[in-house]
């Protein structure tokens, strides 16, 4: 944009300069062309033609008056001179210069047309066919046309030249009148008389000549022309005037005027006056030419001067503008570079602050040197803006980091309380034997496990990591069950695992969290009656876990936005995203990014959503070589020595003993072969027996080496059915229904599966 500062003044000044230069060049060219035409190109041929035709007119009149006189030879010689003048004038008809004087070419064309009849007129004169008056009129007409050419040559574009040329044209008319009078008197001297018409022409010519001389020619004489101011007082002019006065006093018959005096005296007088007038005409022509050429030279000098000064000024303006613009551009580019550097430095400062590094504001902001102008003030403002931006980023990052620390601290404290609550629930579960109380305790245990996951969400959103750690690899099925146990509607989730995949100990906790979040999303966004299917199978790059629901699904652009979020988890500011319903996706994205998982949402064939979680090979390990410690079967436990239970009484739960005497209905699919016919003992519950050893809490925790062991069957996946059977039998005993109809296989009320710390 700054280039406009250079080009606008230059482009504005250049046309003005060019216009002035063009006008001066045009004026100089026009004046030069006009002066060349007036002096050499057209002026000299026209003047020569004028004097030749004037002389030929006089001799023609004399020959017509006296054919046998001596004037014949002079006429022949004069015609030769006239022919040369005509030959020099004829090329002027081909001129076509737009800078020529106005009306010049029309006058030249008119004169050229009249010259075309010159030869015919001469033949008529020689043959005696032409009368003196006809010949006189023809030559007078050609001379007047030639005077029109000379008058047009005096109308130039320069006013002073026009004024001086006008006196010169008047002088030509004086000569024309004198020649006109001489031609009439020449033929009158031969006859000795003039007709009244001829006499009138003479007197008209004398009056016009005297008027032009006294009123227009003599007053215009200046400089070296002033000696000719007394030409009318000279001997020749006085003699000519005396002869003319005699004509006015001459008598004659009717229609005739007698001529008195000597014709030779008249001829000598007219010749002398004509010579003087021609000398004055030549001097005036030279003066006019000098004035015209001097003015043209002056215009050319002005043109050169203005052009030089203008071009120099234009170059100076362009150079100065370019120089100033270059300086401004360099300084503005410097400011722009500093602004861009700040733009690049600020995210780096924020990233360093996110990594927990300390940032020195003074070291990060490079101050610009102030200058005493507007750009200096702009630089100072940029300094303040840079410092304010970095300082604001530092303060905001510190506030965000402090908020994250506070959030993590609160979440950690809440997790401690949750841990204590789980511990207390364990104690209550071991202490109480009432089935209703146990059922409520189991529900509280499940809700507490979910609450622990929500608190871990806060830790993750605050920039931390889950604290649950495992020391050994865990079977994938146990990981999926642990995740299922942290979902509210866990009963709707079915798990199907192909193969024997084991998860590395470092990934167990985050993977359980990720799967639990995705399972809960599947149950939350689908109808309560619809199932949620979880399938796991090995693939070429690891193990793929698919979680498919039968909800309403999402639009394609929503899938694309969610997948983009999962691929590139942004830095989440929990203070600005408190109302975002996708916080679970942020948690999944953060944990997946830390583990290297690939999570993708797709449309399901059922109309819902299918989530694919790819566990890479880096998270998979081989089956541990050390087999877990076997769990003793119920039949391997010591003989129960308690007194037999009375019919209708609920069993009394003692520490370390299962409710072996509580029986289930006969025909149950879980019937034990050692039980009496029709009834069998309920299974003995062993804490954490449904989990793999890797998910169990350490045996020495809380110094309880002799903690209660609850015996279960070998298939840990049926713990829910076992607890459900216990609950049904308890309800039957309370209601007195001793022989209820047995439930079909697999229809027992499920109970929540245990988590990894239960």
Helix content: 55-70%
State the shape. Answer: rod-shaped
Query: What value does the average pLDDT take?
Result: 76
Based on secondary structure, the structural category is alpha+beta
Taking Cα atoms only, what radius of gyration do you get, to the nearest Å?
A: 66 Å
Question: Which sequence of SSEs, written as H and E, runs from N to C?
Answer: HHHHHHHEHHEHHHHEHEEHEEHHEEEEEH
SS field, number of helical segments? 18
Amino-to-carboxy terminus distance: 73 Å
What number of domains? 3
Strand order of the largest sheet: 4-6-7-9-8
What fraction of residues sit in β-strands? 5-15%
| Largest sheet report | 5 strands, mixed
Ranges where pLDDT stays below 50 over 5 or more residues in a row are 574-579, 628-682, 699-722, 736-758
DSSP strand count: 12
């Amino acid at each position: 944009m700054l280039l406009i500062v250079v080009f606008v003044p230059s482009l504005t000044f250049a046309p003005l300069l060019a216009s002035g230069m063009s006008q001066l060049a045009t004026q100089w060219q026009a004046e030069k062309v006009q002066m060349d035409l007036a002096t050499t190109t057209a002026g000299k041929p026209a003047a020569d033609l004028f004097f030749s035709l004037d002389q030929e007119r006089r001799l023609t009149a004399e020959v017509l008056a006296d054919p046998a006189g001596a004037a014949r030879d002079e006429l022949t010689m004069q015609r030769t001179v006239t022919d040369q003048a005509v030959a020099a004038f004829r090329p002027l008809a081909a001129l076509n210069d737009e800078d020529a004087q106005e009306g010049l070419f029309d006058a030249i064309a008119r004169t050229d047309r009249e010259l075309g009849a010159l030869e015919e007129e001469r033949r008529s004169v020689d043959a005696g066919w032409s009368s003196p008056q006809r010949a006189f009129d023809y030559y007078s007409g050609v001379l007047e046309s030639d005077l029109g050419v000379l008058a047009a040559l005096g109308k130039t574009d320069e006013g002073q030249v026009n004024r001086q040329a006008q006196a010169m044209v008047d002088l030509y008319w004086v000569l024309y009148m004198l020649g006109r009078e001489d031609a009439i008197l020449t033929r009158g001297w031969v006859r000795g008389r003039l007709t009244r018409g001829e006499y009138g022409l003479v007197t008209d010519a004398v009056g016009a000549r005297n008027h032009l001389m006294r009123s227009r020619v003599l007053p215009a004489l200046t400089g070296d022309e002033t000696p000719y101011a007394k030409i009318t007082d000279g001997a020749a002019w006085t003699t000519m005037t005396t002869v003319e006065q005699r004509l006015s006093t001459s008598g004659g018959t009717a229609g005739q005027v007698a001529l008195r005096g000597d014709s030779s005296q008249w001829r000598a007088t007219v010749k002398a006056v004509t010579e003087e007038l021609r000398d004055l005409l030549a001097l005036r022509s030279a003066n006019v030419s000098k004035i015209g050429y001097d003015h043209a030279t002056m215009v050319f000098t002005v043109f050169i001067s203005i052009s030089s000064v203008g071009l120099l000024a234009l170059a100076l303006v362009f150079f100065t503008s370019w120089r100033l613009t270059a300086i401004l551009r360099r300084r503005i580019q410097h400011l722009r570079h500093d602004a861009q550097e700040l733009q690049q430095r600020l995210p780096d400062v924020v990233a360093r602050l996110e990594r927990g590094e300390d940032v020195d504001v003074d070291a990060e902001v490079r101050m610009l040197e102030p200058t005493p102008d507007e750009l200096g003030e702009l630089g100072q403002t940029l300094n303040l803006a840079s410092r304010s931006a970095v300082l604001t980023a530092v303060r905001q990052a510190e506030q965000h980091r402090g908020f994250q620390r506070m959030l993590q601290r609160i979440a950690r404290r809440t997790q401690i309380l949750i841990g204590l609550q789980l511990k207390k629930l364990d104690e209550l579960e071991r202490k109480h034997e009432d089935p209703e109380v146990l059922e409520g305790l189991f529900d509280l245990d499940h809700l507490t496990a979910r609450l622990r996951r929500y608190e871990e969400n806060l830790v993750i959103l605050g920039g931390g990591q889950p604290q649950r750690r495992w020391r050994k690899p865990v079977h994938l099925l146990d990981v999926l069950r642990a995740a299922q146990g942290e979902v509210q509607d866990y009963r709707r989730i079915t798990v199907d695992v192909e193969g024997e995949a084991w998860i590395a100990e470092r990934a167990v906790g985050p993977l359980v969290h990720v799967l639990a979040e995705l399972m809960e999303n599947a149950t939350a966004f689908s109808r309560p009656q619809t199932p949620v299917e979880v399938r796991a199978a090995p693939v070429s790059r690891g193990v793929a876990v698919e979680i498919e629901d039968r909800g309403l699904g999402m639009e394609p652009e929503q899938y694309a936005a969610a997948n983009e979020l999962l691929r590139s988890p942004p830095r989440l500011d929990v203070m600005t995203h408190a109302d975002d319903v996708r916080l679970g996706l942020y948690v999944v994205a953060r944990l997946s990014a830390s583990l290297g998982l690939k999570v993708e949402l797709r449309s399901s064939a059922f109309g819902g959503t299918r989530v694919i979680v790819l566990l890479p090979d880096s998270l998979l390990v081989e089956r541990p070589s050390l087999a877990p410690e076997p769990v003793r079967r119920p039949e391997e436990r010591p003989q129960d020595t308690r007194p037999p239970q009375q019919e209708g009484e609920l069993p009394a739960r003692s520490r370390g003993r299962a409710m072996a005497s509580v029986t289930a209905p006969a025909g149950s699919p879980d019937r034990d072969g050692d039980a009496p016919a029709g009834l069998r003992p309920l299974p003995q519950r062993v804490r954490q027996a449904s989990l793999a050893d890797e998910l169990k809490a350490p045996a020495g925790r809380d110094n309880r080496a002799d903690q209660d062991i609850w015996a279960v069957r070998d298939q840990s996946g049926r713990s829910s059915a076992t607890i459900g059977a216990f609950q049904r039998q308890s309800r039957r005993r309370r209601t007195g229904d001793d022989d209820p109809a047995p439930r079909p296989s697999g229809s027992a009320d499920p109970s929540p599966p245990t988590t990894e710390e239960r």
